[in-house]
Amino acid sequence: MKVDFSKNNGLIPVIIQNNETQQVLMLGYMNEEAFQKTQKENIVTFFSRSKNRLWTKGETSRNFLKVVSIKEDCDQDALLIQVIPNGPTCHNGTTSCFATEPQIPFLNELENVIENRISNPSSESYVASLFQKGINKMAQKVGEEAVELVIEAKDDNQDLFIGEAADLLFHYLILLQAKNLKLNDIEQELMRRMKK
């Protein structure tokens, strides 16, 4: 890939896009050194014009942007980088710097959080600890939550019912991850059945 850094004092604009949702997350600038560091580490690094130094997105917040692909435009003086974000991209805590509300459905976002907790386990993470106990324990937990939901369904306390429904759905998402499946896989099956 040949990128032209000869314009704009050696800086090129870089559009960051979520690889899964295609949502534009932010715009930054790179000099040649930031571009090379990004290619080498597969984590987006910009040149901060305000700090006048290289700046790896997430160096403070830990919300890194993992590179999936890098494409140059037709003039080779701008980049589109598709990423997997590790949390909100904007410093305001939103998914994108261009919208205050996330454009990815919440359950998909939760699915991504669960996947991240499994891939990057910590001792404080309930998800990681349950995942480490194995498939039998995860399946058992889904069964327990399903029974608790059925029990609450027979009563008239809607708040308790909602709480148990949330517990069941959360543990179901963990079990899907353990089986290397996504909600989209289940959605596709339901869509296939609806056509019959």
TrEMBL record:
Record keywords: Amino-acid biosynthesis, ATP-binding, Cytoplasm, Histidine biosynthesis, Hydrolase, Multifunctional enzyme, Nucleotide-binding
Region (Phosphoribosyl-AMP cyclohydrolase): 1-106
Pathway assigned to this chain's UniProt record: Amino-acid biosynthesis; L-histidine biosynthesis; L-histidine from 5-phospho-alpha-D-ribose 1-diphosphate: step 2/9; Amino-acid biosynthesis; L-histidine biosynthesis; L-histidine from 5-phospho-alpha-D-ribose 1-diphosphate: step 3/9
Enzyme Commission number, as recorded: 3.5.4.19, 3.6.1.31
Ranges where the record places region Phosphoribosyl-ATP pyrophosphohydrolase: 107-196
Signal peptide: none
GO terms of molecular function: ATP binding; phosphoribosyl-AMP cyclohydrolase activity; phosphoribosyl-ATP diphosphatase activity
SUPFAM superfamilies named in the record: all-alpha NTP pyrophosphatases, HisI-like
Annotated InterPro entries: His_synth_HisIE, HisE, PRib-ATP_PPHydrolase-like, PRib_AMP_CycHydrolase_dom, PRib_AMP_CycHydrolase_sf
Residue ranges occupied by any Phosphoribosyl-AMP cyclohydrolase domain in the UniProt entry: 26-98
Gene3D superfamilies attached to this UniProt entry: MazG-like, Phosphoribosyl-AMP cyclohydrolase
Superkingdom as given in the UniProt entry: Bacteria
Subcellular location: Cytoplasm
Chief localisation class: cytoplasm
UniProt-listed GO biological process terms: L-histidine biosynthetic process
Catalytic class of the enzyme: hydrolase
Entries under Pfam families matching the protein: PRA-CH, PRA-PH
Cross-referenced HAMAP family: HisE, HisIE
PANTHER family: HISTIDINE BIOSYNTHESIS BIFUNCTIONAL PROTEIN, HISTIDINE BIOSYNTHESIS BIFUNCTIONAL PROTEIN HISIE
Family: In the N-terminal section; belongs to the PRA-CH family.
Protein name, UniProt field: Histidine biosynthesis bifunctional protein HisIE
Organism of this sequence: Flavobacterium aquatile LMG 4008 = ATCC 11947
Upper classification of the organism: Bacteria, Pseudomonadati, Bacteroidota, Flavobacteriia, Flavobacteriales
Gene label: hisI
